[in-house]
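## retry 2 of 3
previous attempt timed out at serialization; input unchanged, resubmitting
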Amino acid sequence: MLKNLFLKYLQFEKRFSENTIKSYKNDLYQFSDFIERNFKEIEVHLVNEKIIRAWIVSLMEKDFSTLSINRKISTLKTFFKFLLREGHINVNPMDKVISPKNAKKLPNFVEEKQINNLLDDYSFGDDFAGIRNKTIVEMFYNTGMRLSELIGLTNQSLDFHGGTIKVLGKRNKERILPLHSSFLKSLRKYISIRDQEFINLDHEYLFVTDKGNKLYEKFVYRIVNKYLNMVTTIEKKSPHILRHTFATHLLNRGADLNAIKELLGHANLSATQIYTHNTFEKLKTIYKQAHPRA
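## retry succeeded, writing output
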């Protein structure tokens, strides 16, 4: 059988792993079963792009993911390329088959009401850890900075007079972010209690651990995860979610996309445009709820 010849080719010539070959085998037998059920007995050289497209549609109807379908298409491409090379077919039907585009995963974000509940109504505590934790969460939400950028902040990063903070982003690119007056007060309060807690710090980092050391990623992640758990049920509750939340909320309230790009430190606008999808989804929801004929 041609399928067996193909699998041996994968094993001995391509030297694919056992698991990869098993995956190819499953895809091919799934395709064969579809042909037998819908087209009875058909020679391999009679398989055309219409039959293959019909199989793809059947997979979509069974709710296979785009990623899974594209993997199966890749299997067929390799299979028919092998058959063409070996002279079993004269035309490759896969030349006219276009793979479906992988759906872009929209970034998760926390709703405005949930963020406001967390920052306005929840008590973080009045000790050093509580004030630091709230200030960290506020810093992420107020600036949209990355985790690595927050960890790298120093006392010199802050300009209280100008109401800004300097961030060192990817590829050592600096950007200056605005801070509103109420958050500047929170920062002053944090710095004051930090300096009382740790009188002789031997470094200039803005945020510190419970022992006065420089922050590290897992430490910050645990803080953000802990407090987001109290207000949202979204699957991921990380510092990056607060970055997504910052951008989405700005866009929802009419901020210019180019301005958001600069605030996030994106190299190009295409990276920022993903947030427009969230905004559009919100508009669709509002439309369905509000329009009398929706």
